[in-house]
Prior knowledge:
The protein is an alpha+beta fold. The protein is 36% helix and 21% strand. The protein starts with a helix and ends in a 15-residue tail after the last helix. Bound molecules: flavin-adenine dinucleotide (FAD). Flavin-adenine dinucleotide binds next to strand 3, helix 5 and strand 10.
Amino acid sequence: MIPDDARHELSKMLGERxxxxxxxxxxxxxxxTWHPEMPPDAVAYPExxxxxxxxxxxxxxxxxxxxxxxTGTALEGHGSAPRGGVTVDFRRMDAxxxxxxxxxxxxVQPGCTRSRLAEELRATGLMFPVDPGADxxxxxxxxxxxxxxxxxxxxxxxxxxxxxxxxxxxxxVIRTGSRARKSSAGYDLTSLFVGAEGxxxxxxxxxxxxxxxxxxxxxAVCGFETTEGAITAVIEAMQLGLTPARIEYVDVAxxxxxxxxxxxxxPEMPHLLLEFHGTDDAVAAEAARMGEVAAENxxxxxxxxIRAEERTALWSMRHRAYHTILASRPGATAIVTxxxxxxxxxxxxxxxxxxxxxxxxxxxxILGHVGDGNxxxxxxxxxxxxxxxxxxxxxxxxMVAHALEFGGTATGEHGVGLGKLHLMEAEHGEAWDVMGALxxxxxxxxxxxxxxxxxxx
Length: 457
Ligand SMILES: Cc1cc2nc3c(=O)[nH]c(=O)nc-3n(C[C@H](O)[C@H](O)[C@H](O)COP(=O)(O)OP(=O)(O)OC[C@H]3O[C@@H](n4cnc5c(N)ncnc54)[C@H](O)[C@@H]3O)c2cc1C
């Protein structure tokens, strides 16, 4: 429990914007996946950077943990409160502060969601392309270094955060980066906070890079005789200089579920789902060339379309896929793997994962952002069955071991949270201790989102 003095100070400052009710606390201790609920002791809803700084200062004085919260869609128990404390929910700091069209930049508050930003930008001819599927907040996306379906062309949050305002563990407010396209002015603190999962400070403002909305967009779908053929088609397309905006893989198990539960009408084979952005001519040329590459690798029934309705239907189905898969086993939750490997080793990595899942009692449909070498197995488990959870963890750890052997990473985009913490030693070695030293330098009392990312004290 937080000390009474701390609670009184916070209540005095925030009034009803300090929530202590059970349901609010439970909501902020929950994860989208299998992680057990770990609620905070209070939830604060600040409206300004000054309020965030005051909350952090009060918590620092009373040694109370502080956990940032965007929309709570992270998958590894990132926002849970294993040591209690105050969760800072940024939903009331959701403004789009300034669009500078000539510099192709936007300044936002951290609680602004991806869809809200898209709405604000619609009339400007500009867009923000990072798309993790879930309607996440931009502060949360920066904090997990998120990416998603469009990273193959546009990059991840790492490539899009130009500058930040951050409240440090002692309540100081700093600005990192600038509006300039490049800078050699010292350590790259912006990159340090991107992906820090709120363990080094709370982001209270972001300056993000924008792109022009493409003149034309086409989507394509293609079934393949084998997974290997699908992956080879991806590699060859890249080698030929094709620049799809999305290349997503779905395995046969996923296709079956989408057909049965989401009205898809796909042949029961592994598929690639693609999107192309550019001028009318460029999009048509890329889509047609991709069809040839697919055919050379066992792809059949290649269909591409420029009608917005078809595109929207395809990507809504893809974005719903996680929940559609979960619904195929009523009451199930999941351990979601997130390994990312060099694309040249992706076919091998998926083949090994499929073989291990086939030998297991669990179902684990696979889908992923294969243009980046990143795939997810949705290992479905009964939340009440420790045997199933242990088996899913075993499978997940085996996939990570393969990924590290192939020169990859345990997590391409979801982040560490609690669920991937035990894998950091194997991935980083001594470098993990350096992360710990940085954490101690910026947060000596270990109060910012404790228990995540670095080795527990
Ligand atoms: C169906 C589904 C599909 C998904 N697909 C993808 C995908 O394709 N790619 C991908 O990258 N992710 C994906 N995710 C995961 C998730 O959407 C991302 O991790 C997202 O970036 C989390 O944003 P959020 O606003 O929900 O953050 P939260 O879950 O609220 O927080 C995430 C972390 O950031 C910290 N944090 C939040 N706000 C701040 C802040 N202002 N300052 C400092 N720290 C803060 C939190 O403490 C926590 O550690 C998916 C999730 C779901 C449910």
